[in-house]
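Hello forum,

I keep getting stuck at the same step: I have a sequence, I want structure tokens, and every attempt I make locally crashes halfway through. Rather than fight my setup again tonight, could one of you with a working pipeline run this one for me? It's a single chain of 627 residues.
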Amino acid sequence: MQKLRLAIVAGFLIMALFSSLVRAVEKRGRFSVDNLGLLPLPRHVTAYATKWQLPAKIGITADNPAERHIARFLQHFLRHRQIVADIASTGIGQIMLSTGAANSKLGHEGYLLDVTSHGAVLSANTGHGLFYALQTFEQLFNPAKPTDNAIHEVSIMDWPRYRWRGIMLDCARYRFSVRTIKKFIRLAAHYKLNMFHWHLSDFEGWRVKIPQYPKLTQIGAYWYKNGYGGGYYTQKQIREIVAYAHARYITIVPEIDVPGHCRAAIQAYPWLAGGRGHSPLTPSRRTFQFLKTVFGDLARLFPGPIHIGGDEVDVKAWAKDRAAHKLMRRYHWKSLQQILSYFEVKLARFLNARGHRAIIWDDPNVPVKPLPRNTIVECWNSSTVVPIDASEGHDIMVAEAPQLYFDARQGDIKYEPWPVPWYRVVNLRTTYQFNPSELLPVSLRSRLLGAEACMWADEWAIHEIPKAFANPHLFYQLLPRELALAEICWTPKNLQNYSSFVSRTSPQYSWLRKHHYYFRMPQPSFRVFCDGGHTSRTHDLNHNALIVNTTSNFANVLVSDPVPETLFYYTLNGAIPDVQSVRYRSPLHLQIIPGKPVIVRVVAIDPFGRTSAPAKLILKFKNEAKP
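Reply #2:
Ran it on my machine without issues. Output:
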């Protein structure tokens, strides 16, 4: 039966290929890939103007457990499109799911997707690839019109650029709810991210229950700022979240950051610091028994790699630590830095023995040497040390600051919803244009696993703005930059194009609205038409303007924005626009007088009242006549 089914799928694919060849001859039938709105952009896409109209009742063919797992996601999706779908393991459904692609190019996560006027085939080598085929298939539908179930015919072959496509959430400084974390995971999975780095301990809080050490959660989870944002995750809740992520092909990487950043644990058990009252941990036998218990529990709760931290350790504090001096005498060490290496190497080997790879932050100020070679090094302050770590045989994962630090503000501080103290602005373009591969020479790029963005819940957010990291504000910081992260991690660099990317975000904003994800409204953009025009753009801390110098006395200005159903309001007097300003309805026809620049300011406002930062256009008359 399985052989017959594979033959049927193969026959369908051959028919789809033949159909594609026929359609390719009919050039008028081609459809712009950008207009499909797929994100991240697939590797190979051919799209056609012709469509498949899905019927109100449909059959899904899925045979093995992986296929049926994806079929249930698809069935749920179609139900919300008002389509009744039945899943069967035999016969030929209008939608066929297959993990029998047997295509070496696709690897573990790639997929094939063919949609014709008769139906669709989603195929891959594994359930991972089939899940990503489904995410692309869903994006073919208009999220703003749940009853419009006609989708373009396409032929797609796709696989990811990087193996590690991650996003980190800091729950040590602020404990996000289980519901929010699931929402966070669902967003990541839809855009084909596959790693969730879960930061569970730091100065401000300890968030994972360890039964053998109850004070970690009785005290360490609540001590900071009188318990603001306090709390912890039970092991039952952690198993629930791990299962939720696993179902969406996301690996959770827990982090307990040691031996620095341990104030919450020390508040619970002061002996962890040898009586000093602050981190780093003392390197005593009792401390290492504590760490074995903690990381032993993590190894049972989480199936993948485990992050052991290791960054920003004040090794000088060990100069007055009795256990540290005892250890140095025992091993005849001359440097306090060797104690840090001892901590991290000991933990990495402990995890290796239990079938887990260790991950460590790369700290250029206090490097840890020598780590077990299978240790993954996460590089956040890049650059010079990345090739060194790779040349020593370590796999590298990049979380570059500031480009991939999503706690950084996205624009002018005057127009952000709360004061972010980062002096750097990390806007959508900055994230999109970051290329992780450039940090390594070509000879070492095989060691690059990929990249992840970090969403730190810094102290300023908790202390200054009590509600700053409630659910909407979290996703405001993430979006739309997480969309850029998804594309730079999945799509080959030679296919990345910022203008194309922005145009393809339009249906994503509709999807985000539908699923109740708060996002930062992008600034409107300008297109200026005039004779002899020369444009330039200025970027600095609190100024972002498009400047057009022209020899024409008139210019036509078009305003656009990728967010659907957006209204624009503008001023010509230098004031910041609001809903009381003039509404933009058609291109502006503006007169430019020598010596009197025209300044246009525009804001975008969506149906829910969310307002963008103002965009600024300066039109200047440039007299090129010679004296």
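DSSP finds 17 helices and 24 strands in the chain. If your local run keeps crashing, start a new thread with the error log.
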